[in-house]
């Protein structure tokens, strides 16, 4: 068991030297849109930026029928699989169980529009089911993420796509197309508004992006008209919300809501409202008093061009995988310590120093276990590995005296020299230094961890991660069947087959 138990040092060390292909694709194949968005290039205004609402509405409307390049299909399949594996693994964690209980209390049963709460055999109304499934998808720190946009698309977009496709009897190909356009909008909307603009306004990218992404995916599946989509975007704008106070959450419940459940519920609701005939502001992305023209998003790092290059790149290649069940910025330190383990005498450890770029204080004292580097270092040293359950255990972080004693020996400090130059993609890195009482010292610098967009996992590595996550819950045979079915999702006549495979 290589990915989550993380005991084999050779694997951890070798990962630093991998060539890091985009699932075996060339860089141009992974980024380029081929024919997929080529027809939109003539629609996109270059200067000034106008008619955004109608342009984006047409892109979403046409996403259900335009050709999709094979390179994008490969990437989308793997992200769907990664999300399903996360849902299976997090099914019984509290963010998931609370959301499921709420959904069942509101609309449980097998009504006309009921959808399966993913990972279970239970059903609720389509909106409530998608909400509960998304909460499960981000029940812990193991699903995919876009570091350049500060969003995590999979839980909301995939949950909405599967809920709609199941209730409407739609195909795997329709789901794949919906997921692709959903990922595009989840990532591009925060970039258009400005990452710093959002942060300065205390508005969470993590909630804004998935609302629009889930809605785009739903609209693609519902075959909404351009006019309906323009109204839908207005209802997304009215619901788009979330603050950075999720950083104060200690149990990953509110975080799961902001990152996943909220966007799934709001985005799907907006699409269903448009389908039902709800009308409103047609040009919310262009109107002087519309959403995107707010003074909060004007100037600064506002980047409307990110909404204008659909024909040049895909956000799928900007989406990473979490190799370990911990927050993205903590992954390099975890990886580095695991690689040092065979050389360390744990009982002799007197000090551990983790140097990292960015806001080190956030990961020095985080209340959430999977984000607290002092806790993660302690359990890795004690257990000689990192497992999924311990990485999420607040009880152990607060109640294990051996863990707390080791945490006192860990320092987490900011290292500005590890910051990437302006304009370069963020990869996250760490330097781990371990001192022993006898004078022995161990040190490793981890420039990146496989999984970041700059050094992506291969398809085979994503498959293996999914197997690691699902096998304890579904058994080896069924877990492999989920992987095989997802990797051929385009050929599924009805998505319900895949939904049943992950149910228990």
Automatic annotation (TrEMBL):
Q: What is this protein called?
A: MmgE/PrpD family protein
Signal peptide (residue range): 1-17
Question: SUPFAM superfamilies annotated for this entry?
Answer: 2-methylcitrate dehydratase PrpD
The UniProt record lists the keyword Signal? yes
Report which superkingdom the organism of origin falls in: Eukaryota
UniProt-listed PANTHER family: 2-METHYLCITRATE DEHYDRATASE, 2-METHYLCITRATE DEHYDRATASE-RELATED
To which protein family does this belong? Belongs to the PrpD family.
Tell me the keywords, alphabetical order: Signal
| InterPro entries in the cross-refs | MmgE/PrpD_sf, MmgE/PrpD_sf_1, MmgE/PrpD_sf_2, MmgE_PrpD, MmgE_PrpD_C, MmgE_PrpD_N
Q: Does the keyword Secreted apply?
A: no
Q: MmgE/PrpD C-terminal domain spans which residues?
A: 324-483
What GO molecular function terms would the record report? lyase activity
Residues of the MmgE/PrpD N-terminal domain:
56-293
